[in-house]
Amino acid sequence: QTVHAVLGTQVPQAPGAGYAYKLGRDDRVSVAYFGDGAASEGDSLTALNMASVYGAQTLFICRNNGYSISTGVEDQYGGDG
Questions:
Q1: N or C end of the chain: which has fewer CB within 10 A?
Q2: pLDDT tens-digit profile of 54-75?
Q3: Please, which residues have CB within 8 angstroms of residue 39's CB and are 6 or more apart in sequence?
């Protein structure tokens, strides 16, 4: 039996909304809040890249909640956690 969990699949919607706010000249931002496990998923990395390339009005909040699905934080990131 394997463990399967989907992480970070909702993160790409935030820069999409943030880009719409930019195009509409809205004075607001979109926010994506996710855990450290989701930060290693492709969807999250794609969202970060899209927000950067298109200047989307997006705030990303990544919380080290200690519940990463497979790899410990000490092996997953180059920073101090």
A1: N
A2: 999 999 999 887 766 666 666 7
A3: 8, 62
